Amino acid sequence: MAGHGARSRSGGRPTLEEVAARAGVGRGTVSRVINGSPRVSDATRAAVEAAVAELGYVPNTAARALAANRTDAIALVVPEPETRFFAEPYFSDMLKGVGAELSETEMQLLLIFAGSDRERQRLAQYLAAHRVDGVLLVSVHADDPLPDLLAQLEIPAVISGPRSAAETLTSVDSDNYGGARSAVEHLLSRGRTRIAHITGRLDVYGAQRRVDGYREALLDAGHEVDEHLIQPGDFTEEGGRRAMKELLARRPDVDAVFAGSDVMAAGARQVLREEGRVIPDDVALVGYDDSAIARHMDPPLTSVRQPIEEMGRSMIDLLLAEIADRRPATSRGLERRQAVLATELVMRASS
Amino acid sequence: MAGHGARSRSGGRPTLEEVAARAGVGRGTVSRVINGSPRVSDATRAAVEAAVAELGYVPNTAARALAANRTDAIALVVPEPETRFFAEPYFSDMLKGVGAELSETEMQLLLIFAGSDRERQRLAQYLAAHRVDGVLLVSVHADDPLPDLLAQLEIPAVISGPRSAAETLTSVDSDNYGGARSAVEHLLSRGRTRIAHITGRLDVYGAQRRVDGYREALLDAGHEVDEHLIQPGDFTEEGGRRAMKELLARRPDVDAVFAGSDVMAAGARQVLREEGRVIPDDVALVGYDDSAIARHMDPPLTSVRQPIEEMGRSMIDLLLAEIADRRPATSRGLERRQAVLATELVMRASS
DNA sequence: AGGTACCGTGGGAGCGCTCCCACCGGTGAT
DNA sequence: ATCACCGGTGGGAGCGCTCCCACGGTACCT
Fold first, then answer.
1. A31 Cβ within 7 A of any nucleic strand C atom
2. Strand D contacted by A44 CB (< 7 A)
C-alpha cells in the first residue's frame, strides 16, 4: 500500500528524510515544522504539511527521545498495591483530572504500581533509566525513600499531599487547614460549643493541619481549646470508635464531633448510637473526604470535600512547568512551587 | 558521587562505551553480556558485570529502541471510559494477572483508555507510531475497528473474548460453552427438568456459546430443548426482569433458570419474588460471572466463575510469543493461536 | 603441514531524529 | 556603494545502542 523507499525496513514507515525529499526541502526544515517552530515561512510550512499528510508520516519516538534526551512521558506512581488503587475512588478521581489535563499535550501517561518490594525494585530501575521526563507521586508515606531517590536522580516530580511543612518537592494539596476551619465554623454557627476533634494519624501532615484549623477556628471565635476534646485517631473505623469512647468518657457533655475522615466518623457514629445519643440532635457529626460512606451513612454525613480531580490537573500543570525548565526545584535553590486548592463543606443531615 | 567521563551530558549516565573501556573489552561484548547472549566467555562476562555494577550502568532505552526497532513495552487497551474500568472488578482482576505475568520480564505495561473519540484518535496515532511492541485488547465490541487497525499496522495483538468463531486475532477466552454446560448439568442433577435460559446479547460471541452449552447439556442428558424456555436478554438487570416475566407467562411451570450473567439473574430474582416464587424451592437460579452481586444476593447465587486473572496471564504469554517471532498471526497464514480456560461452578443457596 | 571449522571478540555502520552552525539573499544603516 | 544584520534554510555531527562482518586463535580433521 505505502510506497517503499530504497530499502524499507519493518513496514517501511516514512522518515523525516523522505518527507523532506517529497516537500523539496531540507531535513532541518521538516523538523522545524513538525515541532512547531515559528522560523519557517508559510509557504514552506504548507508544503511540508502536505508531504507529511501524503506520506502518513509519524515521528519515530525512539529517535526523538535519543536525540533530544527526553521521553515525552510521565509516570503516575502509586506506592500501593493495585487492590487499593481500585478500591479507593481517590485514585480514580485523581486519574481523571490527570488524564484530562494531559490530553491537551503530546505527553503520555504511565501508571506504575509500587506496592510490593519487587515492584519498588523495578521502579527504581525504571527511574534510573530515565524512562520518563517527570513523576507524579500520590499517597506517599512520611518515611518513603522515593522522593529522595527522585531528587537524587534529578527527575522533576510533584507530590500530592506534602510530607511536611518543609516539603522539598513541588507539591499540590487541598486546604486541610481551611477545610477543618470551615467544618468547625459550621458547627459553631449551629450553636454547638463543646466540639470535639478526632484526628487522623498525626504523622500525616494533612492531619496535623486539620488539627491546626480546628484549634484556630475555635480561638478566632473566642473559645478556648480544651485539649481533652482532641482525641488522636488513625483514619480507621476502629480508631474512630476508640476515640469516640474515650471522648465520651472524658467529656460526656460533648455536643459535636469533627472527625478527620469519613471512615472515623462512621466509627464514631456507631459508638454514639450505642450510647443512645441521637445525631444530630444530641451530637452533631462532621466528617472529612466526602466519600461514598458520607452519602450513605444514616443520617447522611456532613463532610469536607477535597477537589481531587482538580488536584490532578494542578499536579500536571506544575510538573509540566518543571519539566519545561529542566531544573528540578530540589536540585537548585529555586523557589518552591506549590498549589493549595480550596475545599468545600458539603452539608447533610448529620449536623 | 559517580565518576564523570570525558564530557558528561545530563547527569552523566554511563554509556556502553564507557563500560566497555572500564572492563577492557569492546562495545559489542558488553552488549552481548547485557542482553544475555551465550557467546561470551565466563571470565569476560564477569569482568563486564563488575564494570556495569561499578559504574551503575543502566541501558538507554531510547537508543536501544531506535537501533533494535522494538520498544519493550506493550499496551493494555481498554475501549471504555475510565469510570467503567474502575467500576468493574473484571478489569482489576485482569490487570492483576497481566501485571504478575509481566513482572517476570523486562517488558513494560501501558494502560490506555479509549473511551471517547478523542482518546481513540490519540490511540490510533500512538499505534501508528509503533510505540508498543504489542497490544492486549479487552472488552471489544463486535463492530470495533480497532482489531483491523492493529492487523493493518502489523502489530501483534491478543484479544480477550473472540468476536466470533472466525476471530482472526489471537484470542483468550474462558470456556463459555463448558461453563454453561456445568450450570445446566448441575440443575439437572438437582432434579430440575424445566430449565429456562436467559441469554446475553447474542451479538456477543460468548453469549452464543453459552446458549450452545445450554442446549447440548440438555440434549446429552436425553431431554428435548424447548425453544420457549430460551429467552434473549441483554446483560442488564432490566433485561433480566423482562425476560423472566416473559418466561413466566409462557411457561408458568418453569422450575429453574440459568441466566447468562449475574446481573440478569438479579433482575430475574426480583420478578420471581414479585410473583411469589421461592428460590430455590420453587425455582432454582444460576448466574454467570461469580461477581460481587452473586455473593451478596438473597439467597446467595450459584454462579459460573471465569478465571479472569489467569486469562490475563494467558494473554501475556500468547502476546509475548507472538512478539518473539515478529509475525502477527493475522498477516501470514499461520495457525491461529488461542487459549480457552476452564470455568468453575460456584455453588450457593440459590440452586 | 595445511586446511577447515568454529568460538569469542572488536568495531564499523547505521537506526531517525534534534541541535546547531553555516550560508543565502534581502534590508536598512552608514 | 559597503557593511552589518536577520529571517529562512540546508545539512553535518552526533545521541547510545544493535547488528553483523571480519578477525585472530585454538582444535580438529585430512
1. yes
2. yes
Query: Under the phi-then-psi rule, with left for phi > 0, alpha for psi from -120 to 50, and beta for the rest, what region is A315?
Result: alpha
pLDDT tens-place string over residues B29-39: 999 999 999 99
Which grid cell sits at B45?
Answer: 562476562
Residue B192 pLDDT > 50, yes or no? yes
Q: Which nucleotide is nearest to B29 (CA to C1')?
A: C9
Confidence of residue B87 (pLDDT cuts 50, 70, 90): confident
Taking only the tens place, the pLDDT of each residue in A228-286 is 999 999 999 999 999 999 999 999 999 999 999 999 999 999 999 999 999 999 999 99
pTM: 0.86
- Contact (CB<8Å) B65/A65: yes
Identify the bridge partners of residue B112 per DSSP, sorted by sequence position: B77
For A18-27, write each residue's pLDDT tens digit: 999 999 999 9
Residue A257, number of CB atoms within 10 A of its CB = 34
Contact yes or no for B315/B76 (Cβ under 8 A): no
Residue B255 carries which side chain, given as an amino acid letter? D
Distance CA A61, CA B21 (A): 29
Centre a 10 Å sphere on the Cβ of residue A223 and count the other Cβ atoms it contains: 14
- In the prediction, which pLDDT does A334 show? 53
- CB within 8 Å of A250: residues ≥ 6 apart: A228
Peptide bond into B299 cis (omega under 30): yes
Shortest CA distance from B155: residue in chain A? A11
Strand C nucleotides, any atom under 7 Å from protein beta carbons: they are: 7-12, 14-21
Kindly identify which residue of chain A lies nearest to residue B128, measuring between CA atoms: A58
Q: Give the distance from residue A110's alpha carbon to the nearest chain B alpha carbon, in angstroms.
A: 6
- Evaluate if the CB of A27 falls below 7 Å from strand C: yes
Strands B344-346 and B302-305, sheet pairing: antiparallel
**Among chain B residues, CA nearest to A63:** B66
